[in-house]
Amino acid sequence: MLSDALGRCIEDNGGTIRTECPVKSFKYSGDECTGVILESGEEIDATKAVVSNLNVKQMFPDMFPGAQSLSLHWNFRQVSFIK
Question: Do the Cβ atoms of 55 and 64 come closer than 8 Å?
């Protein structure tokens, strides 16, 4: 199954998968997502990437403060760090 393979890939590359942790907002600096803030108030900083299964309408603009001023191309970019 694709989701199992993606999970193994993330964990094999040092990532952590958190479930049942509703996200309140995403943290960003410039054009980089740097982490998330959970509804519980816990802040999680990312070292390589933030992976989400939310669609764009669920994320923007409410989960990105100031997102109205971001251009649409910022939302989608190709990421390849797996060697």
Answer: no
Tokens 């989701």 correspond to 3
Long-range contact set of residues 69-75: C-beta below 8 Å, sequence gap at least 24: 74/31
Residues linked to residue 23 through DSSP beta bridges, in sequence order: 38
Instruction: Return the closest-CA partner of residue 69 out of 37, 38, 28.
Output: 28
For the record, the structure tokens of 74 come out as 């910022």
0.90 exceeded by the pTM? no
Residue 64 and residue 70 in contact, taking contact as beta carbons nearer than 8 Å? yes
In tens, the pLDDT along 8-49 reads: 999 999 999 988 999 898 888 877 889 999 999 999 999 888
Q: pLDDT band at residue 57, thresholds of 50, 70 and 90?
A: confident
Q: How far apart are CA 81 and CA 83, in angstroms?
A: 6
